[in-house]
Amino acid sequence: MEIISMGLLTLVLLSISSVHVYWGFGGVWPGKDPQSLARTVVGGPVGMSPPPAWACFGVALALALAAGMVLAFVGVLTLPLPTGWLRWGMGALAVVFLLGGVGGTLWNGCGPVRREVRSCGSTNKSTRRCVLSWDCWRGHW
């Protein structure tokens, strides 16, 4: 069961990484133009520009490395790291996703951004991050 859970986690991380690579090369899905992409994904105000390509590629690299760490943790990939480091890495992934999920939920409920500007997917994105956090934490122990 753990290998299936970690396999799904890896698939999700690599899928999100692929979308960031797509955005880095100028893709605008799920928006229609760069400004609607920024508004939909980030939840920024009208006219906001999307992040630069280097930021998209940096996030994609970080997510791909996280997926590699998950694969190494379950023994599918061999990395020259002690098992304790992989365990701590999985715990760190859990904390990062949990903070992103909780922070996204709190930010969606308060802050200087007007209600009509907030992305309708922000709460769903925060929920997904909390689920990813739980999956990483389960793998951690």
UniProtKB/TrEMBL annotation:
Pfam families from the UniProt entry: DUF3995
Highest rank taxon of the organism: Bacteria
Keywords: Membrane, Transmembrane, Transmembrane helix
InterPro entries documented for this protein: DUF3995
Organism: Deinococcus detaillensis
Protein name: DUF3995 domain-containing protein
Transmembrane portions of the chain: 52-76, 88-107
